[in-house]
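Posting for a labmate who doesn't have an account.
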Amino acid sequence: MSNRYLSNILPGRPWAGERCFIIGGGESLKGFDFESLRGEKIIAINRAVEYVPFADIMFCLDQKLYGLYSQHNAKLNWQAFESFRGLRVWVEAPGGNYGNDVLLVKMKGKHGLADNLARGIFTGGNSGYGAVQLAVALGAKQICLLGFDMNQGNFHSGYPSPGGDPETRGWIDGFNELAPKLEVAGIKVINLNQQSKLRCFPFGELKTKSTITAITPTGDRPLAFELCQQWMMNQIKRPDQWLVIDDGKTPTKHSAPMQYIRRKPKADDPSHTLAANLRKALSLIAGDKIIIWEDDEYYAPGYIEAMASLLDKYEIVGIKHSKYYHLASGGYKQFTNEAHASFAATAFRRSVLPDLKAILDAGDNPFIDMALWKRIGGRGYLFTDDRPLYLGMKGLPGREGIVKGHKAENYVLHDTADRAQLKKWMPSDYRVYLDVLAGKEIKYPISAGCDIIVPTYNNEVLTVACFESIKKCTSDYRIIWVDNGSRNTAAVEKSLEGVNHLAIKLPRNEGFVAATNRGLAISNAPFVCLLNNDTVVSTRWLEKLIAALKANKKLGIVGALTAPLPILERRLWPKGITSSLQLKKDYDSHHNIRYIEDCQFRRPFFPEYVNLEDFNRRIENQFPGHLGDTRFIAFLCAVIKREVIEKVGLLDVNYAMGMYDDNDYDLAVKKAGWETKLLYDTCIMHFGHATFRDINKTEKFDDDALRLKNLAYMKRKWGLK
């Protein structure tokens, strides 16, 4: 039973600081559009799961309900229960008899406040109280209650087994006692049914996740706009709507997803047409959050995500430290604006639009930023850009802007010949501007033949070894590094200096699947490689894998063999491993040459070889281009065609930390009509389970329980025995 606790699957506080919705059974939810909650953190209580198949957790106290679902009771939608893709969670109780698809939480008592999931939750004698406790233990800071009516009616058909009237008076008393404890803990609970008898929490209206609109006025800046599109496509969080208003003499070529509006220039246009272009955009804005995205500036991959997050707290936000860099001359300057931010580094809520409209209606003021911030007054928030997120790039060819920074003679400080200041302010993407200086043609998208997505969590030595091997053995690639809140990344960052890469740094460990999906969401290369950070690659590994995909239209995913581990350099062995025999026994991994089913390729590879490259040369000479069958392609090293990803989509988030996510995707790809194969003439080295071992150093993490849970889910999803 100990292997099946929820705390082993979701260690720590995975919902820390987030909002969640708890869906009860009250009849106030009759006719409610549950689709409006998609994308939110959701706990569905009891039968609510039949109506919210995308909930994260189904939570129950009632032991009988599991039995009724398992017996396919005709009064329940048991099919919805069995196809549910989230976590099924029951409170542990004596005599409880649940299948392997159920995770348990301990019951700490009846009334109190839970602060640690592993130690258990208080239940209050009802599932609603217990669900609130569960949300608190998972770290949620805002809890929205739906269907907490506190009467005898249900929005669904109720429960088949007689149980008497709900003890609503006792339930309300329990919540009345809990409410002040939640307030002291800084946890905001909102009751979204204003007719509810539960009145200890403030009432509120449903506000689903906001949408984002980015606005880009442009015109006669073709090179700048090529770069502008790339910086947008590199964003971790892209806008729901991108309005581009073009008033150039020559229409701008565009290829990224956007809503392109052509405003033909007029004879009486002022010299600077920002106000006119914004007036054109006002009526088209659909988002709740508006990001100004100027065409000639540099925006780091986390810019929109950071600005949108701040707009959850403030009405208007902006960067108060202006950084200008004049590309042609190398001139640069930095100064602080205490009263306003540059318009290019400003974002605001929809509520600010009337203020912006008033400024635009007053005339063609070229300094809209100063006017807007002055009008807003104390409603705004200026912050220091320490990451950095933004750089005012000046001196690109095309129509000149209005600020003095566009002229080279206005700079006192100048960069060194190797552009050290540019590298400091733009560590990931400075090389793009160096290419501009060198006269190289820049076309959207600025990417590579293959995006290599590498999620990481600690294990810095292994990650550096992986990246160094990629640099040595690979061409025409871009690394998309997604870090899950590692303790130290300095050595990894140093390893990536000068490498074509994007870095996505998450504040906490969101798991392999979420991190991989982050990378997939911003990838735009024709081929995508999913690669574990506990791997070392060999010469021409990626070239051969991509060649196999290009040569076979039916092939959707191809994987590399893994070589015997004892030949790996001793400095990379995991702690506690003292001999190659022990390494071979404990750490051989999937796709290893020893495990392939085609025996004609097994026999020659039992001898130990000098190193990975020696092994690679031998298989390259003996099996050139040979593709073999396997049960599935493990995502320790898998190259996928872009059209496959576009058809099948992202990884299933229900696999969370990982395990069976690759089996699942392999099944989906085959169902969509593609084949998946192993390529026998290329190999990598793979430790296996390095991240799970690292987690176990600091947390009680039961990876066996995770494996069983994910396997059970996959079997349900695909109808496997």
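Reply:
Got it, the structure tokens are right above this. The chain has three domains: 2-191, 212-437, 450-718.
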